[in-house]
Design brief:
Shape of chain A: elongated
CATH class of the largest domain in chain A: Alpha Beta
Largest sheet of chain A: 8 strands, mixed
Order of helices and strands of chain A: EHHEHHEEHEEEHEHEHEHEHHEEHEH
Oligomer: homodimer
Mean pLDDT of chain A: 96
Distance between the termini of chain A: 26 Å
Number of strands of chain A: 14
CATH architecture of the largest domain in chain A: 3-Layer(aba) Sandwich
CATH topology of the largest domain in chain A: Alkaline Phosphatase, subunit A
Radius of gyration of chain A: 23 Å
Number of domains of chain A: 2
Helix content of chain A: 25-40%
Largest interface: A-B, 37 and 25 residues
Structural class of chain A: alpha/beta
Low-confidence stretches of chain A: none
CATH superfamily of the largest domain in chain A: Alkaline Phosphatase, subunit A
Number of helices of chain A: 13
Strand order of the largest sheet of chain A: 10-9-11-1-12-13-2-14
Chain lengths: 395, 395
């Protein structure tokens, strides 16, 4: 039994030219053919009118309720920068900042340290990593991000008590003010806050001679959500094929095994899929660039990624998945240059669909489809049903 | 940012002639044009198969869950008769009734006092108001309704304890029986019930010489629901433009400011809208007559109101609202001569819709639209999303 969930990130769109959306403008002969013989519809990632971030968007697709399971900012940042987040970890989102000192008191001059170049960030993060590896039993793990951003993980020896991540941001959110101390909302959190404050102290000493990035501000203290894995919930041996760390990270939260394609192209990802086809029952294939171009407002780019995917679709079909889904985690209309609340086109191909309702795989055609408009969190049920994996309910 | 929610009361209908509904029979060139470039769909006011009253119908449109927020009968009656209902008030629905006396015991002969003419009601209510203004610290406020109906408010000096409105109806619901005393279900309610009984006593003394309306029966003791205002929930400076007191009252419960048009026509209401356009961010425009004609079973009348609205639509469009919604609070099919459970057509125009899915604004065309069929309580989210007012959920 093979189920393949293909996610074209930010797939849904709005009219950009001649009243047509990116999906409508794209020449997609293979998707068109598939659409005529598949079940089509749309899904609502979180709720009507709600624009999801990547975390909630994927949680829904993986069958979790994104309103119930929260992925903290720190965890998402860490996953996005390729760090593993364990249950013994506190994950934090960091900014390099510029401060001036009034006596010994730091005052924030630039919360983003002038958006230092990413290479500068790498150098500084490397420096901190080398000089600080452990504080009071907490391993210190750092990863550089883009410009001024980085991720911090405090890794402990044993699982942490509930609520121990409830630590206030140290970012005062404006210039001219002093960074705030980390303060825990309870005793367990306070213990960790003390370690955090010691880390800030040591880091600011080390960075004191930097001209721009001479301080750190921390936000979004959070922990890996304690959710049942894909295997536990669905008894499916599952894997994720994705080029970007964040999506691999999100899949790892759901307990999927992670396959790293050899290159960055969709073709590379499909090569990985072919290679791993015999090893798993459930495949989450993530394609990023539809979203990236949407965020840039580059509808032509988005159209070209859709067309590229279409040209490679025959390779996927040759694998003969029992159930094939193609959708997005949310819409990213080029005209909005960002994620949006609009329902996302959804296609499901299996031997057990009506088909014959839609002529193409587009936002407007999907409105005519047999799936209707459903919450994202129900898609996993539909895929498992089409794989004949859900037993009858009641007698 | 301007959001305009236009409610044509009881908008939805059923086939009345040539198999067509009121919306389908109406000639609406302006709505038709708008429909082609808008997001369309239908909303379910309360739940599938549930026929809503005006209270729940509007609560849903205002983004409250009509199954959670209850508006008592007394409050609705008082609002409908133009009374303000404060948090220090107990609102009650009253009937003038006819009793005969057996000794000193009144026995109900007619629960509606022969449906006395409304002018009679006004005279009698005036008389009571003049003779009873206060009982044991409660101000007595009366408003005449149609025929035998009136509203009573007991206004106290300070907010009332929770549950103090739990007072049993005094209407025995049949003739040949004595009116029941007001009885409180708890100590606080019992205190108020004693005031109510004193009011009934005094009123029946005053009315003793009336030939028909010589007694009062009270029902639906209730209080203003304690709900967060529109401003608190959505941070929108909002107003209501409505000709009928009940809808102004419902809007005031949600904390909207009330604009009273100078006349009774749709044109008068739109004049008010134009005048107030710079003063608010959210406008609730209520048009009553679609419902009134529906309730009368007068489908031609309902068609004519729809056509009248259509002819005035260009004036609304000239204001260039950022987000424009047109819908009803429920359906009132002329063939049913009353409210019904049928989903209500919904149109949303903003720069961020697909459009191109429907050719007209009718029940059947809306089924093809991009919104699908959604609960009424989600509409406010969709309007705010289209106004780009809802921040992204999660990262």
């Amino acid at each position: 039994m093979k189920i393949l969930l293909t996610v074209l990130d930010g797939l849904g769109g709005l009219p950009v030219k001649y009243g047509k959306t990116e999906l409508e403008l794209a020449k997609t002969p293979n998707l068109d053919r598939l659409a005529t013989e598949s079940a089509l519809g749309l899904h609502i990632p979180v709720d009507v009118g709600i624009t999801p971030g990547s975390g909630p968007g994927h949680l829904g697709l993986f069958g979790y309720d994104p309103l119930e399971v929260e992925i903290g900012r720190g965890v998402l940042e860490a996953l996005g920068l390729g760090l593993e987040v364990r249950e013994t970890d506190i994950a934090v989102r960091g900014n390099y900042a510029t401060v001036r000192y009034e006596g010994n008191t730091p005052v924030v001059v630039d919360r983003r340290a002038g958006r230092i170049p990413t290479e500068e960030n790498r150098r500084i993060t490397q420096r901190l990593s080398e000089e600080i590896s452990e504080i009071d039993g907490a391993r210190i793990i750092l990863a550089p991000g883009m410009e001024h951003r980085f991720a911090l993980i405090l890794r402990f020896e044993s699982p942490l008590p509930p609520g121990s991540e409830k630590i206030r941001d140290t970012d005062p959110q404006k210039t001219g003010e002093s960074p705030l101390p980390a303060v825990g909302e309870n005793e367990d959190a306070e213990k960790i806050a003390r370690i955090v404050n010691r880390f800030i102290e040591q880091a600011s000493e080390i960075l004191r001679d930097e001209s721009q990035a001479n301080y750190i501000l921390l936000r979004g203290f959070s922990r890996r959500p304690d959710i049942p894995t894909f295997k536990e919930r669905f008894n499916l041996k599952s894997c994720c094929i994705a080029t970007y760390p964040m999506y691999r990270g999100l899949a790892s939260l759901a307990g999927m095994e992670i396959i790293k394609p050899e290159g960055w192209s969709i073709e590379d990802e499909i090569s990985s899929l072919e290679k791993e086809w015999d090893n798993y029952e459930f495949f989450f294939l993530h394609i990023k660039k539809t979203d990236s171009y949407g965020e840039d407002g580059n509808w032509k780019g988005k159209v070209s990624v859709i067309e590229e995917f279409d040209s490679l679709l025959p390779k996927i079909l040759e694998l003969k998945p029992d159930v094939l889904a193609i959708t997005g985690d949310h819409s990213t209309p080029s005209v909005l240059k960002g994620h949006s609340w609009h329902p996302v086109p959804l296609l499901i191909k299996s031997p057990y669909v009506l088909g014959g309702t839609c002529e193409r795989f587009t936002e407007r055609e999907c409105l005519k489809g047999e799936i209707g408009i459903i919450p994202a969190k129900k898609i996993m049920n539909l895929l498992r049903a089409n794989a004949l994996l859900i037993p009858k309910f009641g007698a």
